[in-house]
Amino acid sequence: MVAGVGLSACAGGPASVESPQYLASPAKSDETPAISDPNEQSNRSVFESNQKFNHDVLYPVAKAYNENVPGEVRDRIESFTTNLSEPIVFANDVLQLRPTAAVKTLGRFAINTTVGLGGLFDVAASEGIAHQSGDFGQTLYVWGYRNSDYVILPVIGPTTVRDAIGSTVEFAAQIPAGGLLAPTKIASLANTVNVAGTVASPLTNISKAEDMQTLEESSIDFYSMLRSVTQQKRQAQLQEALDTSALTATPPVRDPNAIEPTMDLVSSPMMLEKPKLVSPPVRAVKTAAHGMVVEIGPPRAVEERSPAEEETSPAEEKSPAEERSPAEEDAAASVH
To answer: First and final CA of the chain: distance in angstroms?
Structure first.
């Protein structure tokens, strides 16, 4: 596995130099930042040595690997090593204050480790949870370390001073765990090494080295082309981190020409109707016990009645006290 990392690493690295200043302000620009390569002469010398190693070792191994290892097996190896790198990605997403990326990374690791049989199958990707970027070089960029010189390292290949520091810190942070995190570090290191701008795992880098060889054969100045391709890939990752970090993300600008949504309040006709109330009925009733009594009833809504109902209904209801026989009337009069 270590040999695989060495072979893949010499092919390329997260090459690029970044944008503006040093404070953690996004300073987003439509133009790709210029690559700072003050040591181009020495970088080209190391690059030629790496390319000699590629032609003597890497390209033949890559060809044999692609011809003898089935594509399905190569996919399982890529998924497995990518899953091993997820804890490092998660830690850096947290340090960058990218909660959405951190939650997705944690979810991917949980799903792929369990349902995906230890990461052999990328089940999370089939559920729409894409792999997130996240390394300590990217974290340093979000924290404010913007400008960094492009450098070619022996075996490691294209990178920047900032990203080289980031890889060193990640490696040192895992030393206390010893062999338990060794596979994780190998996968994490591979995820910071670019082959023609493609982030991949160790053996996957080897499988894609043939594409790099084709790119080399078609370019006049392969050093400049690889530097440009890796810089663009890396800059896209760095800009993504700036745009999604709570430290540097800018709130969306309101479009003055946007049409604001409106709400029409529609009232029901029933809401507009006023209840029709009449004065409470007042009745003077003469009783045997109390004499003349005034009765006041509760208010009641006016009921619309047809002319036929008006004719058939009595004009006024009589209380039971009013419905008395003549004998009762005479007895009441004699009492008074």
So the answer is: 124
- Cα separation of 120 and 241, whole Å? 27
Cα(138)–Cα(127) distance, integer angstroms: 26
> Strand, coil or helix: what is 128?
coil
Task: Quote the CA–CA distance of 47 and 29 in Å, as a whole number.
Answer: 30
pTM, entire model: 0.62
Q: For the segment 117-150, what is each residue's pLDDT rounded down to a tens digit?
A: 999 999 999 999 999 999 999 999 999 999 999 9
Among residues 184, 201, 138, which one has the least CA distance to residue 4?
A: 201
Strand partners, 160: 150
Q: Which two tokens stand for residue 275?
A: 């209840």
Interatomic CA distance for residues 73 and 91, integer angstroms: 29
The answer to whether the beta carbons of residues 196 and 211 sit under 8 Å apart is yes
Q: What is the pLDDT of residues 96-113, one digit of tens each?
A: 999 999 999 999 999 999
Displacement of CA 64 from its chain's centroid (Å): 40
> What letter represents residue 151's amino acid?
V
Q: Using CA atoms, how far apart are residues 331 and 268, in angstroms rounded to an integer?
A: 59
Banded model confidence at residue 77, pLDDT cuts 50, 70, 90 = confident
Tokens of 160: 């920047």
Residue 253 tokens read as 């600008």
Residue 54 has pLDDT above 60, yes or no: yes
Q: How far apart are CA 332 and CA 336, in angstroms?
A: 7
